[in-house]
Amino acid sequence: MTVMVLGEFPPPLVSLTSLPLPSGNGSSLPQFNLNLPPLNIAILEIILHLISPFLGRFFFQQTFSAQRAFPLNPIVANANSFGQLNEILTMDFAFSTVELKDDTIIVVLGASGDLAKKKTFPALFGLFRNKFLPKDIKIVGYARTKMDTEEYLKRVRSYIKIPTKEIEDQLDQFCKMCTYVSGQYDQDDSFIGLNKHLEEIEDKRQSKEQNRVFYMALPPSVFITVSEQLKRNCYPRSGLARIIVEKPFGKDLQSSRDLQKALEPNWKEDEIFRIDHYLGKEMVKNILILRFGNEFFNATWNRHHIDNVQITFKEPFGTEGRGGYFDEFGIIRDVMQNHLLQVLTLLAMERPISFSSEDIRDEKVRVLRAMDPIEPKNVIIGQYGRSLDGSKPGYLEDDTVPKESRCPTFCAMVAYIKNERWDGVPFILKAGKALNEQKTEVRIQFKDVTSGIFKDIPRNELVIRVQPNESVYIKMNSKLPGLSMQTVVTELDLTYRRRFSDLKIPEAYESLILDAFKGDHSNFVRDDELDASWRMFSPLLHYLDDNKEIIPMEYPYGSRGPAVLDDFTASYGYKFSDAAGYQWPVTTSAPNRLFTWGTEMTYCTPYLLQLGLTKSKTSLVWIAGPLSGLIIQPLIGVIADRSRSKWGRRRPFMIFGSFVVAFCLLVLGWTTEIVGLFVKDPEKAKNGTIALAVLSIYAVDFSINVVQACCRGLIVDTLPIPSQQAGSAWAGRMSAIGQLFAYVVGAIDTVGIFGTIIGDTQFKQMTVIAAFSLVVAVAITSYSVKERVLISARDDGSAGAIQVLSQLFKTTFELPPRIQAICWAQFWAWIGWFPFLFYSTTWVGETYFRYEVPKDDMDKATDMLGEVGRVGSLSLTVFSAITFLSSVLLPFCILPPDTKRTRFTARPPPGFAAILKYLTAIRPDLQTAWLISQIMFAATMIFAPLAQSRAFATFLVAVCGIPWAISGWAPFAFMGVEINKLTMGGGYSPAIPSSRSGVTMITSASLRNSAADTELDVLRLNHRDSFDSDTDEEEHSSNIPSTGELAGIYLGVLNVYTTLPQFVGTFISWIVFSILEPGAAPAPDNAENTTDTHWMNLDKDRFNAISICLFIGAISALIAAEATRRLRYVL
């Protein structure tokens, strides 16, 4: 039943004989009875309707139910006459809506404190500048600090930024309104002195009404005492009084109620304004307009369409010396119980009857009452440690923090609302300090598209960015322009700084202080609302406080939070935006990069031999590969990690490197012509040609490593952990395509097909094609990939190359155990792969011409270099075809490196579905597949010295396509997972102990999703095992730059372990060539004599040195297999 006073004559709605009046905290008071005869009651009801127009300006509406009634003082229960009732009604409702205009004093208690300095006085000055403060207002500061008015005004000036002369003049006017009184917070004499000062100000005005606003910028410990003193000694004789109270409003339900009980005798509810400054933020206030002012949201704003809601609060800084204060409350009390919960209620509330403060707060309270207390199983907590580079201290290193503190600095939790609209929808709240960025946002994720034609399309999302860069955008699916029906994720974006560039967004405190002057309670917390919120959080807080064995999970300063965070959110239905759409453009440059490698590996060795180098010297030339990889990849990785270019961290280096590669390839193809322009002497020209060719190869190798490092970094940066194997597999596929393309082109007679337009030899045309294709591919990748731009305040970017290399050196020797194990497996594997990649073409060609081609036929050859290249390319074409097929099919047959984390569902081509369905049941994991590939390569290359025909040599090379495909993605997939785990705050395996002593992790199977998700073991809370020792484990700390992404530095380290074995392989090859083929026949006078065969070993009675190198590589592959096997046991 409802009583409405709207200025009309409504029909009778309620009898006054029995009227229940709930109290301020929501519990109903006993019913009161006016004990009047029925006739008198009827007369009173008629009179109430008649006078309603005069009360209409107060616009109040009240539901007499278990919900809160209109804010009547309990003395209404004793009213036994209409006069008393009318007086009470008028008094209570008038105060709640009256705007304070003239003759008002605002008293800032705690005027010398941090809150007054950073928020209160800047907000008051902002209101003054924009002429929103009441006329002739006076601002009185009160604090324990003893100082005169002059010193106080000097402090006030220091609180305000003065960018212009106009603002300086306004600040002078503002300071004339300010005075100061010092005193204690618990002494009557001090507050009597304050009141005397206020009366002196009021007496000068000679006004009938004197309004006072008391702003309590004070610690909670003095709330009750100060509120009592203000009521007893400083309450105005006439006019209105209001008290603004800062959070925290207690530490739990009981302390909150104690505070409320202390306020109730002195201050009425409509006089109290409890500030939660998030309710004053522009985007939070905009939630109601977005929801109820846009009809297209109304139909989908429910459990039938919304899958989950995330509310995130992230700060990039720690406690920074304020840990003692923070430790008393923690992140749950400091942020989640108030800021995030307020946002949740605005998102979930029903449409209010009006925009009046009571109607809005009524709906918010209904939401809170529909929520059960937070369950510990739906919570993870963390505490930040030292940053990975050691530059930022951990929470426990703050001198103001107790050394054994278990206070969480990070928390993620899930809450449910049990009503018709939201039943079953998880509201995921996340808050943390010392994270990787500053951000507060709401992310509403809608359900999957159910239509069969869009099985894997990404979910729609509505994102409300509260701060910084206020914005609202909708992630939606659209058709990619073109002839296909390919979909692409795009955004409908409202960014405030672009759309409303001419408007200033007010500060939250400005908005709330102005609301307090207006008497508008809409954005302030009501007592029953506060009670309901503490009812939700107090059981969890007591559980965490009482169970001393619960230890927050440690995460590095500057990371995204605890490592289990992604698993936690995924277990409640949240799906990361599908990054599979980015896998193709991310890896687009891979095929053309490998085309360049293929050209180099196919033609450069015989090209250098043809120029007159011996095989032993040629082997030394190939130090360029490992040398460039050792220096350039890690160096570029670290530099790119720190790059703040607006174009991204990787793409500028990719583009620059690709142009350098293209230029050097063209120089390599035309070395003889270039040298001939400057040197006419044949002997000097020959030496100059060799020198320029070697220099060009070095330049190509160094610059291609720039491109490769950035391409690999893009994969790790762009794709989440569940897609790391898919991304690496796509890179492997693209690489195989590039190699296949290179070898196919190399195997055909391009001069015969294209003529001499792009070169008169096969080698020249290959360099042109390689240069052009690389530039185009890098351009496509750079245009297609949306790369994150680094914004960091922790790194000044002044580190030079020496410091970067020094940091890399330290990192290499301080690797996490699993990354170290991956690197060792890669080290031994690449000792085997080096001779295969650089000499297999020449080996197949030599085998063919050695055993199968008569000498007369060789004399007829017009381009011996091209002939050897085409024979070798044919074998490598088969090799690349097998590599490509393996890279396409094997990912469907192999489990990802972290099966429990991935939510990726492989969708193979229909023709292979039946076979792969059988293989799914027996498919190995990626580690086992990598181990088998090492053994397969070793078993193949052991037979290299026995090859005496092109067919057998080609067969051996082709079989190696399978292990090469796996080697192309396995180590990078493992590294991608490990890097992302480190970025998010460390390991996540239940078997991994925390860096804090005696800590193990427990799992919970109580997941939101049923069948499909119950296989996920999600870490909830860390518990100290009573059987663990009390000794501290040494905390792993390495000097690695932490910007939230570590791809460059760790992939650089992996590259070190890829390039060092190439030095070993080069040294082994040099020894073998020096012993078995110590010299070569004299070089021809013409460095480009295309019919000469002196540079090949065609003596059937001598050992083929290349086959011996391949055999030694097979032995190394067996060692790599053992290292891969041991990886399984490294934690």
Give a structural overview.
GO terms for molecular function: glucose-6-phosphate dehydrogenase activity; NADP binding. InterPro entries: G6P_DH, G6P_DH_AS, G6P_DH_C, G6P_DH_NAD-bd, MFS_trans_sf, NAD(P)-bd_dom_sf. 47% of the residues are buried. The chain has 1131 residues and is α/β, with parallel strands linked by helices. The chain folds into four domains: 2-97, no CATH class; 104-246, 3-Layer(aba) Sandwich (Rossmann fold), CATH 3.40.50; 306-507 and 548-562, Dihydrodipicolinate Reductase, domain 2 (2-Layer Sandwich), CATH 3.30.360.10; 580-985 and 1039-1127, Growth Hormone, Chain: A (Up-down Bundle). The strands form four sheets. It has a nine-stranded mixed β-sheet, with helices on both faces. It has a six-stranded parallel β-sheet with strand order 5-4-3-6-7-8, with helices on both faces. The protein is elongated, with a radius of gyration of 38 Å.
Radius of gyration: 38 Å
Distance between the termini: 66 Å
Largest sheet: 9 strands, mixed
Number of domains: 4
What kind of oligomer do you see? Answer: single chain
| Uncertain stretches | 1-35, 52-96, 578-587, 791-799, 900-907, 985-1045, 1080-1091
- Strand order within the widest beta sheet: 16-15-14-13-9-12-11-10-18
Tell the overall outline.
elongated
Q: Helical proportion?
A: 40-55%
The tally of helices reads: 38
Q: What structural class is derived from the secondary structure elements?
A: alpha/beta
User: What is the CATH third-level topology name of the largest domain?
Assistant: Growth Hormone, Chain: A
Number of strands: 20
Domain Glucose-6-phosphate dehydrogenase C-terminal: 288-576
Protein name: Glucose-6-phosphate 1-dehydrogenase
Catalytic activity: D-glucose 6-phosphate + NADP(+) = 6-phospho-D-glucono-1,5-lactone + NADPH + H(+)
Pathway: Carbohydrate degradation; pentose phosphate pathway; D-ribulose 5-phosphate from D-glucose 6-phosphate (oxidative stage): step 1/3
